[in-house]
Specification:
mainly alpha
C-alpha cells in the first residue's frame, strides 16, 4: 500500500512535468519514507490518546526521530514491520515510564544517558551495507547525533532539577530505545 501510494504520487508529478523521469526512483523512495513516517507518527499519537498520554508521544517522537534519522542503525525489512515495532516500542516506553518513574534515582538516569552518549560516540552513524555513506555525510550525521544526544541528556537533567521526574524518565527511556537500535547487527539484504 505504501509503495503503491508512493508510485501514484510520483506518476502524478511526472505526468504534470513537475519532476523528470530520471528522478522517479528518488521520488518514490522519498514518498515511501514520508508516508511511512507519517503513518508511524499517526499511530503513535493515536495510541497516546488511547492511553491518555499525548505528551508521552510527543516526547517519544522528538527523542527518537532525530536520533534514528541521523544515527542509522537497524531497520525493519518492511514499512509495516517498522510501523508496528515503532508502536510497540512507544507502548513499552510509555507504560514502563508510567510504572517506574517515581522509583528511579537521578544518578541512574544520568548513568543511562552517559552510556547512551558513549554508544552514540562509538557507533554512530551505523551504516547499512546496502546504502554506504560518503565520509562527509558520516561526519555530519555523527555530529548531529552527538549534539542531539547531549541536548537530550541536558534536558533530562534540567527536568530532574526542576522536579519533573516523569518527563526526565520518559526522555531517557525514549532516547535509549533509539540508541538500542545502533547496537543490533545489520546484515546485507539479498533482495
Amino acid at each position: 500500500m505504501i509503495e503503491k501510494a508512493a508510485i501514484i504520487l510520483t506518476n502524478k508529478l511526472s505526468r504534470n512535468n513537475i519532476i523528470e523521469n530520471e528522478a522517479r526512483d528518488i521520488y518514490i523512495y522519498g514518498f515511501n519514507l514520508t508516508i511511512s513516517t507519517i503513518m508511524n507518527s499517526v499511530l503513535i499519537l493515536s495510541l497516546a490518546f488511547l492511553y491518555r498520554r499525548p505528551l508521552d508521544a510527543m516526547i517519544y517522537i522528538l527523542c527518537t526521530h532525530p536520533l534514528r534519522t541521523n544515527g542509522g542503525g537497524w531497520h525493519a525489512q518492511t514499512h509495516w514491520l517498522c510501523i508496528t515495532l515503532g508502536a510497540i516500542s512507544f507502548t513499552i516506553v510509555s507504560w514502563a515510564c508510567f510504572w517506574i518513574w517515581a522509583s528511579i534515582p537521578w544518578f541512574v538516569l544520568f548513568a543511562v544517558q552517559i552510556i547512551s552518549l558513549g554508544i552514540i560516540w562509538i557507533r554512530v552513524p551505523v551504516e547499512h551495507p546496502n546504502n554506504p555513506l560518503e565520509d562527509d555525510a558520516k561526519r555530519v550525521m555523527r555530529l548531529k547525533c552527538i549534539v542531539y544526544g547531549g541536548v537530550i541528556m541536558a534536558t533530562s537533567m534540567v527536568l530532574i532539577v526542576m522536579g519533573q521526574q516523569h518527563a526526565s524518565v520518559l526522555i531517557t527511556l525514549s532516547a535509549t530505545s533509539a540508541v538500542g537500535t545502533f547496537l543490533i547487527p545489520i546484515e546485507r539484504s539479498t533482495r
